Amino acid sequence: MMKNILVTGGAGFIGSHVVRLLVNKYSNYNIINLDNLTYAGNLENLNDIENKPNYSFVKADICDYDKICAVFSEYNIDSVIHLAAESHVDRSIKDPFSFAKTNIMGTLSLLEAAKNIWNNDFDNKLFYHISTDEVYGSLGDEGYFTEKTAYDPHSPYSASKASSDHFVRSFSDTYGLPIVVSNCSNNYGSFQFPEKLIPLFINNICKSKPLPVYGKGENIRDWLFVNDHARAIDLIFHNGSKGDTYNIGGFNEWKNIDLIKVLIKTVDKFLGRKEGESEKLITFVTDRAGHDYRYAIDSTKLKNELGWEPSLQFEEGIEHTVKWYLENQDWINNVTSGEYQKYYKEMYK
Ligand code: NAD
Ligand code: DAU
Questions:
Q1: 346 in active site
Q2: Number of structural domains the chain divides into
Q3: Which structural domain range is residue 82 located in?
Q4: What is the per-residue pLDDT for 237?
Q5: CATH at 265
Q6: Which residues are CB-neighbours of 90 under 8 A, at least 6 positions away?
Q7: Among residues 35, 61, 86, 133, which one is catalytic?
Q8: Best mutation site among 191, 221, 294 for ligand 2, i.e. most ligand atoms within 8 A of its Cβ?
Q9: Average pLDDT by consecutive 10-residue portion of the chain (349 residues)?
Q10: Known catalytic residue at 133
Q11: Are residues 119 and 55 part of one domain?
Q12: Is 319 a catalytic residue?
């Protein structure tokens, strides 16, 4: 069946992997990537597929309701996979307004456009909203987030994502808009902007720069290879139950400091340095405000209902990821020039 899928945020980290997967796998789908190319959006992430006949790019802001309606009409959009967002917790602490604007108002503008342009004819339509495990708050040493865990966001980022999730579900309950939501744990892999822990630290280890570990490095995150997230999105898009929520995660928890030591070991090995040589770069710095202690996703529902499981072991995924950043120094240099230097100085002064 032919589909015209609007993917928002397709020039970002996860979005570019989703766009690549869909464009390559479904030649009968038109994939329309809508992104306004913020500091985190980069069309270089999609060089390999930009000339494919089933791919189009539109530069637009999701908050621009009129423009979104025009795109729905021009491309005859029947499905949305919504990833566009401000996504970095540290930036949300410095500038919560931009998070409320993009993540809440931008999502609302997409929902309104879908409802109004589809005009209550919701046959074969879908609005798929990509969310995060951070909406569930923070865990102690035990337990997991399930789809039934009550929302308890702590950062302006997670509060804005939680709000957008509520709006999406409200459009299903109030107007009958066909929706599905997934909440995923921390992703890692190629094309991630080096403000997030893994690419930032790989880059700093390579350049022998300090590694700013927040607090004592004891916070725990549950890491998933980005291609496995993209595979889950493909599956949920096609087979998820309308109105439902799916948690996505790899049962792969790491204390930050232990993960950082794995990164050091892997980068040092690739660069021919003495094992553990770069551990001297570890620098404990002031903790992130409101820093959630532990995230851990229970993705049993996704496994039982749709048969999804992560395809990669963590060690393999990290090797692959470190190698990618080492072999793509031009990409790193391009994204860390200009504005990034200013951000880095202000953030880590
Ligand atoms: P990212 O910051 O790498 O990319 C975000 C993309 O959205 C960029 O291309 C940016 O240009 C675009 N964008 C931002 N504001 C926009 C606007 N107003 N209009 C149009 N485009 C805009 O983010 P990511 O890490 O790829 O995350 C993608 C989605 O997945 C987000 O919704 C995020 O909340 C969610 N998520 C991320 C993770 C993770 O570990 N990175 C985990 C779970 C969920
Ligand atoms: O859990 C899903 C979320 O994961 C996504 O929704 C977010 O978009 C994504 O950014 C990510 O949020 P985190 O805050 O968990 O990721 P980040 O890479 O910023 O940080 C991971 C951990 O590392 C966290 O405990 C904070 C710590 N950290 C991070 C940075 C950037 C440091 O110790 N030092 C750093 O410099």
A1: no
A2: 2
A3: 3-188+223-248
A4: 98
A5: 3.90.25.10
A6: 195, 288, 347
A7: 133
A8: 221
A9: 96 98 98 97 97 98 98 98 98 98 98 97 98 98 98 98 99 98 98 98 97 98 98 98 97 98 97 95 98 98 98 95 97 91 91
A10: yes
A11: yes
A12: no
* Single pTM value for the model: 0.98
CATH number at residue 32: 3.40.50.720
Annotated catalytic residue within 86, 134, 268, 292? 134
Q: Considering only CA atoms, which residue is closest to atom 30 of ligand 2?
A: 197
Crossing angle of helices 13-25 and 226-239, in 10° steps, is 60
Listed residue (258, 248, 186, 182) closest to 221, CA to CA = 186
- Which amino acid appears at position 323 of this protein? K
The set of protein residues with a Cβ atom below 6 angstroms from ligand 2 is 87-89, 132-134, 185-186, 196-197, 200, 212-214, 219, 221, 256, 288, 295
Bridge partners, residue 4, by sequence: 30
Ligand 1 atom nearest the C-alpha of 82 is 32
> For residue 291, what pLDDT is reported?
98
Residues in the chain, how many? 349
169 and 150 assigned to the same domain: yes
Residue 348 counted as domain residue: no
Residue 283 token pair: 């620098």
- Paired tokens of 183: 């909440």
The answer to whether the CB of 16 falls within 8 A of the CB of 191 is: yes
